[in-house]
Amino acid sequence: MPKYLSVISDSHGARSNLARLVGDFTVSDKIVFLGDGLNDLNELFEFEDKIIMVAGNCDFMPFVSKRETFIIEGVKFLAVHGDEFSVKSSLTRLKEYAKKIGVDVVLYGHTHVADIKEEDGITFINPGTLSRYGLKETFAFISVDNGKVNAKIIPISRR
Q1: Of the four, 9, 10, 25, 83, which is 20 to 30 A from 60 by CA?
Q2: How far is it, in rounded angstroms, from Cα 31 to Cα 8?
Q3: pTM of this prediction?
Q4: Buried-exposed string 71-99: b where 16+ CB fall within 10 A, e elsewhere
């Protein structure tokens, strides 16, 4: 049976966009928040048992990790905000780290630009931003079925 993940990042106070995604969160097995808006997650208290979160450069919560790894259906994921790997310049440092720890999928934010790409056998997924600070307000929806990952970027405007 497939597992579903909703991946969000960079909400920067856009709590109304989080509210618009509640239907997706209901069907998701996990909600992954990639930082810059951890205070916004207060709106999602009913999903707290599903949330995996990392801190971004605008989050001042030292008790929240900057990196998390987890496994779903045999697929190893890394969740980071991305600032500590300079992802606005390139994915080189993040890719080196991902190879070093042996992950299959990297979830990252920080750039406010949604993207899905594969490099050297690793899938990189950036859900974009929920805030008005990007070109589009987007999130990522991922299914994992028997080790196969299928990811889509979904514009909030269609919700």
Answers
A1: 25
A2: 8
A3: 0.96
A4: ebeebebbbbbbbebebeeebeebbebbe
